[in-house]
Predict the structure.
Amino acid sequence: MALSDIIFKRLRDIVGTAYCSRAKEDLVCYSYDATSQTCFPDAIVFPQNAQEVSAVLKLANKENFFVIPRGSGSGMTGGSLAVSGGIVMVMTRFNRICNIDKDNLIAHVEPGVLTGKFHSEVEKHGLFYPPDPSSSEFCTLGGNIAECAGGPRAVKYGVTRDYVLGLEVVIPTGEIIHTGVQTAKGVVGYDLTRLLTGSEGTLGVVTRITLRLLPLPESVMTMTAFFDEIGTAAKTVSEIIRRSVIPRSIEYMDNASIRCVKNYLNTSLPVKSEALLLIEVDGKADETIAAIDRLKSICTSMGAIDVNLAKTKAEAKSLWKARKALSSALFAYGPDKINEDIVVPRSKIPDMVKKIELLRNKTGLVMVSFGHAGDGNIHFNIMLDKKNKAELKKAEAAIEELFDYTLELGGTISGEHGVGITKIPYIKKEIGSVELALMKKIKNLFDPKGILNPGKIFPYGPAA
């Protein structure tokens, strides 16, 4: 339904005239995310506290309009798109780091804080927040919680859910709830914090977060290993873990990735290499030196043609800049991108790499793979022109085959991007009918009128 003038006025009364708009030029800015799909909302609001969020959701329940929470819009599966209209609730005014508690190694923050800014602030206190998605310079902590973001350091430190101790959340009916604890332990009642983390904005709007922190590692060392065969690089990742060496990051880039980022950033990466591993270790100084020496030895023994240690922080930063620039750089290969983030058991990475090679040869499409090889998370990309229907049909068939093989290997079709709208057609491949029905019951319990972020995750739902 269209948003009436009366409802729009009531929204302005809640958040203030300056923080509510339905001007077309404003709606355009919040009609898309990193999927490049476009869905226009009826209006946008910018609340500044939990009470305003609550008032908006209560109004939505009474007047039957949809509300779509949004952070920076960096999501890869359409989770913040207004697919059924309604209002987009932009959380960027929730941008305070309320407290960093060095004694208890926790922080209280709001969901609109940029992840990269939070990293910088806690490090000033000698502390460390490990989750590090590639979009950390512009994504928000609230968005990270919605998708349970991971990043390169997940192989050693885990993902967002491992650092969320507690939440303040406004559920769809407007009640403000508090979940979790501020302590290292807590087992009173069901773990609603874990349920909400990764729920893609379908169960509630996060307004405050309690995060667990770690002491900042004393030393960090970064190295690259280049290989003349993709399969050899993949086997090296498995061998590193088999030998009980756990780096904080093991990133993988295929030849297409190396070529692309070299041109994009004008770097000196050797484009003749078929694959690159970017490996980082941390800990006490003597521990990192010993670990990096072992890693150099393993890579060389496995067939690396060149192994280099970053000599300065600036050199290491340059390598990570190249890795994090990849997603944007890929558009040199085509105007459109299908971007998937499959995960397989680490020992199965060589099998998946081989499968991707077979798909590339079979379809003739431009396929690029890179990602967090240390935890089996491969970002698989097909670059194409979606206006070319023949190409698009081949690409969709390739994705279907890739997902089937991923599940056959014991993996999952999404490691950190979520389901959103782009993976809805495939969710039944992984989630059984009984389990999916149970998830829908949970959604309906939180959101009986289906007003919050409709059309996401579920193939069928109360508001889809």
About this structure: The first strand starts at residue 20 and ends at 21. The chain has a mean pLDDT of 94. The longest helix spans residues 389-408.
